[in-house]
Design a protein that fits this description.
Layout: H1 2-6, H2 11-28, E1 35-37, E2 41-42, H3 48-57, H4 59-73, H5 82-103, H6 113-140, H7 146-178, H8 183-187, H9 195-221, H10 235-255
Antiparallel strand pairs: 1-2
Helix pairs in contact: 2-3, 2-4, 3-4, 3-5, 3-7, 4-5, 5-6, 6-7, 6-9, 6-10, 7-9, 9-10
């Protein structure tokens, strides 16, 4: 994930991060009046923005999603849980670009059935990564059970982004490419992961998010128990049980 750190040495990439974050926050804030879980999450048509910007601007979208979500929290309930909101949204804006590059499909073209399937796939992985991260963190604090929050975030993110991202790409991608503002144009040539690393990385992310969702649901609902006498929110069970799966996701991203 070195690219997300090196970004801050490139002024144009910082500007793209600021644009991504401003756009995300500007669309998030008006919908704070339509909460799904008050003070935690709401109806979010803005969820397409991190995926879209990730495919356009690479890691700039990750910082934009994290910062934009935090700005939105100031209008809907800032608190300790916002730490995990920052981390979850960072990964939400980071996973699409990394996995898309690893798939080796070139420019995202929603008119191609193969590319449309690829877009759906990276959107699902990004949505699940965000859901596992935030669901794990807020359950760890004892705020909201993973079985409620994790599933809501997964569906809320995926449905919105899967529908809107291809439509937005059709309109925006050609213009951004002509303006030479795509991530490779701004940051320079990208080192592609080897095929073995790409496959291993993607598989680790799939196992991480899939296992994390299953473990989080079972542990927080009482279907599986690790520690007898855990708190009513089962924060210890979820905290310990889901953590290894999050580690697999981060390892997979590191390989990509």
């Amino acid at each position: 994930m070195r690219d997300a750190i090196v970004l801050w040495t490139n002024t144009r990439m910082v500007v793209l991060a600021a644009i991504s974050g401003s756009l995300y926050a500007a669309i998030l804030i008006p919908f704070k009046i339509l909460p799904i879980i008050p003070g935690v999450t709401e109806l979010r048509p803005a969820n397409a923005i991190p995926v879209l910007c990730s495919l356009l601007f690479g890691p700039a979208a990750a910082w934009g999603a994290a910062i934009g979500n935090t700005i939105g929290d100031f209008f809907g309930g800032i608190g300790p849980g916002s730490i995990f909101g920052f981390a979850g949204n960072f990964l939400y804006g980071y996973v699409p670009y990394k996995v898309w590059r690893a798939l080796g499909l070139g420019d995202p073209n929603p008119r191609s059935p193969v590319h449309l399937a690829g877009l759906t796939f990276v959107t699902l992985l990004a949505s699940a990564t965000c859901a596992v991260t935030i669901g794990w963190g807020l359950n760890l604090f004892g705020f909201v059970p993973f079985a409620a929050l994790g599933n809501i975030i997964l569906v809320n993110n995926f449905v919105t982004a899967a529908i809107l991202t291809p439509i937005l790409l059709l309109a925006i991608f050609p213009r951004v490419r002509r303006a030479k503002l795509l991530y490779p144009d701004v940051a320079g040539p990208l080192a592609e992961p080897s095929r073995a690393r790409a496959i291993a990385g993607i598989l680790l992310i799939i196992v991480g998010v899939g296992g994390g969702m299953v473990a989080g649901n079972l542990l927080s609902s009482g279907g599986l128990t690790l520690f007898a006498g855990d708190s009513p929110t089962r924060s210890l069970d979820v905290g310990v049980g889901v953590l290894p799966f999050l580690a697999l996701v981060l390892l997979g991203l590191a390989l990509l």
